[in-house]
Amino acid sequence: MAMGNQLIFTEVQEQIQEYLDDITVPNYLRLETVLLIEDSEDLNNSLSLRLSQAGYQVVSALDGLEGLQAIEHHDPDLILLDIGLPKIGGQKLLHELRGMPEACKTPVVVITGLTDPSLEDKLRGFGISRFLRKPIRQKFIVQAVRDVLDGR
Questions:
Q1: CATH number of the domain encompassing residue 45
Q2: pLDDT (tens digit per residue) in 102-124
Q3: Which of these, 28, 34, 86, 102, is most buried using a 10 Å CB contact count?
Q4: Which domain holds residue 105?
């Protein structure tokens, strides 16, 4: 008898999960997702926490390859992208991103410590939304994310 109850419970549990998987959450109930691609683990962790506290769902990646995979799996509302990344550099990732039909219009906020004066113009050619130079206070990064997502 107990085996039969377990089988019924498992079937009901699977049906409930299938139902939940098919539910589309309305946008007004869904947190906006920010994909943070930053190779400095300390900065990645602190920015993730700060963005989470600001009300965003944060997916983080520590290199360009992880970032590219996260773009494909999480459909972020905004990408916060460091340029100096291992495995796939930020410029290459941005180029790849703009060729992806599902993500080509995703807003990108670039944060970088690189000092090349022509870099900002070059990246603006890829349609970035903001260009921020490190070092920068985290509250300004969060404000830039908020402004871009609000359409400002």
A1: 3.40.50.2300
A2: 888 999 999 999 888 899 999 99
A3: 34
A4: 30-149
